[in-house]
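Write out the bound-state structure for zinc ion.
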Amino acid sequence: MTRQLTDPEIGEITVRKNPRAKRITIRVSPRKGVTLTLPWLTSYKQGMETLLEQKGWILTTLERQRRKLREHPMPTKEEIERMRVLAKEILPPRLEELAREHSFQYNQVRIKNNVSNWGSCSRKGNINLNLNLVRLPEDLRDYVMLHELCHLKHPNHGPGFHSLLESVCPEHRKKEKELRKFRIF
Ligand SMILES: [Zn+2]
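---
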């Protein structure tokens, strides 16, 4: 069950009832706007009251996201297609090169367009790379690939993973920090 409400300052708010939700949650996304999720038995009125208590935080978050979006505008459909072509051309060969250099073996590599991560590694040894990686400086691109390659041996972010990553990419902490400036929307 979904309702669309409007607040003069916040704008559009999507209110959703979710039987599995245990508490009220508010999500602010530059793509989807503000989403309020309510447990089944919580009334819309109660949900909106909770949301309005958080108004200050919501407005600050929206403003920050909009500013980021202005600095790094969202690509158009045509730009995405161009990135995809470029990504398919340059990312798989580079991954192969890095894997060979550091003795990693992966199964397949796929180019994805999602907002949740720069890359991922499946239990089956497949590596997914985000096509937005082509927007990154080369060293950060390499860092993401090395990070995913290390997940072939350590699926988590435990100490084993970190010491392996340290050995193949000594500056990984610095890279991880720099990478955060380039959030994918
Ligand atoms: Zn990871």
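---
The chain is about 45% helix and 20% strand.
The chain has a mean pLDDT of 93.
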